[in-house]
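I am still getting used to backbone structure tokens and would like to learn alongside you. To get us started, please write out a protein record for me. Once you have written the record down, we can walk along the chain together.
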Amino acid sequence: MRQVKWLLLLGLGLGGLAAAGPQGCAATCPDLLDEEFTECSSRPGLRYTKCSDSYEFNDGVHFDNLGLTLDYCYCGDGRVSCDDGRTASMCNTTLLDGTASLVYDDGAVDNLQDGVEACLGYPSCTLVTNTCSFGGWYLQCTGAGTAYVVSTGEVKSTLSAAVIACNPGSEDGTPKPGSCSDAIDSCLELADCGASVACDGGFGGECNSTVRCYTHSDLASCASDLACKWEVY
């Protein structure tokens, strides 16, 4: 039923191509048509490349149908369970056409943020990407409290859990090893140095002379710092 959305997208061209990252695509593509890969958003780190007769993903999955390829690339594996009894898929095609949608099991389609708000009864949901990498994202929803809806459809109660979910992980769900590196050249690039552990000089919001992302030793704290980024080994 998500195929309905792709009927509108197929005429737009695939776009979204990015240079190869740390993970390669399937080795079963001797007739590779392009050295570039399309970055996906269904789960962080997933990407695919086009062969002459198929679309090959870097996790070994392949399709010969473009609609199925787009489903796998942009729609999360899991489904959101709505308060009205319906379930829905979250499809973030921002990298493809600048939109994001919630596709219900009855075929109805809504804007992703508005749809999740209605589905789960939150007053406000916002799509977040700045603490994620490799196409990752989550929705931060606020009401009586704050919750985080990740691409698999799961609702997390903490920011750290959402950040871990929107960055590449190991098969057991734990973050992949990496290090915290600087995402900016100077702390002066931030509007408020006090909002960054790596840049906070400790004197009324005064900036450090240099960015100090090495002070973060784990993915969650690193990715939550505006001055930093987590780089997978």
